[in-house]
Amino acid sequence: MTAPSEKLLLFGATGDLSQRMLLPSLYGLAAEELLPAGLAIVATARSAHDDTSFRAFADQALRRFVPGERLTEEALASFLGRLRYVPVDASNESDFAALAEVVGSTEKGLSIFLSTAPSLFSATIDGLAKAGLAGEGVRIGLEKPLGYDMASSRQINDAVARVFPEHRIFRIDHYLGKETVQNLLALRFANSLFEPLWRAGGIDHVQITVSETVGLEGRVGFYDGAGAIRDMVQNHMLQLLALVAMEPPSRYDSTAVRDEKVKVLRSLRPIDRTNANSHSVIGQYGAGAVAGGAVPGYIDELGKPSDTETFVALKAHIDNWRWRGVPFYLRTGKRLPSRQSEIFIQFKSVPHSIFDGRGAVLQPNKLIIRLQPDENVRLLMMSKVPGLDREGMRLREMPLDISLPNAFADTRRRIAYERLLLDLIEGDQTLFVRRDEVEAQWEWIDGIRDGWAANAMKPKTYTAGTWGPSAAIALTERDGVTWHD
User: Fold this and answer.
1) Is 378 found in the same domain as 232?
2) CA 20, CA 88: separation in Å to the nearest integer?
3) pTM for the full model?
């Protein structure tokens, strides 16, 4: 069992992620006494704060983003007392020496959360190493983006690997910290109900949708260089696909779980120059209306021409025994009608209906796992409509719902980063992404993007507030499948 760190070093501590997620998560853990009692938190960024002004900054962020019922003056004062601050410019080696002086000894463990621009990764890692902040007791959490293709990802991972061995590297995908994502493992591997059908013989197809109603929202510089496929598909959606499709691991630990995920990612059939036109659709939103309000198009928000895709739909296959012939449809985009993340699994129809000729139309069973905004597991099943059935038995599709907030009303729903930060501090890598996973993901994504370029594919315009280009509907309807909206 890995010993918990006694210190946490938080890079990017004045940024939006820190204010909305990291500081509230750490406060929540501290308020419930889940952090090591003596854990010191050293915060750093380029901003010119000292301890006092950063504590005031953190106080303001916590009062803004932590629900009032969870915020107490006593817990807040105790948490703020843990914080220290050192300004660091990654290009200035002497700043790391000053940082090391405040951090002090790392013999009893130091966990680093690194959220920085990809261009600063190498300088930051070198600065940590030269300052003595990368020794045996130090582990490092890396927030995305970790590159924009295989080559840049390898460059970043090589820079980190020169200083940190793989067992001390924690690559963060915050989707893996969501309760419903982890519940997917429990649903599959803690129940005997689904496993016999969880394969090509029982499942017709799988859909994974991550939709957003927002546009650029201040992410102009990053998003226009990334697009939907690198922002969402390469990480979050492929991790969801791997969890849906993986074989049962021998045990629930970091090695066994990640071994099975990477097998799935390596089994993805390439989408490349030969089939990009038929297996992928890309779009870019134009002006329209979302939530009853008019919104500008992507080009208008950006202020210049761009071929960046804000929508992508893919038809994927996993070439192994379990999933041979089962299509996985992936869809993500901005300025869509609703914000949702869900996994939709349609089982195959019963092989023979005994109700034929009696007015009953059977629908195949469907399992819907909703990750956000409401965490929910819903199983759609056929049920008899009450009545005397004088003109034939009537059947209707009925839901069996497990609303997680209701089922566990006495348990607080946690921010994903609470679990991930605690796992980083305690040294549990199960919910973090291994390098071979990242590279398998990039290999597949790079092939798709090369296919787009080779076929001169440009994003098709779709009206904001709709479900993407009409070609995305055709992508599934050619197979007799309808997107689950």
Assistant:
1) yes
2) 21
3) 0.93
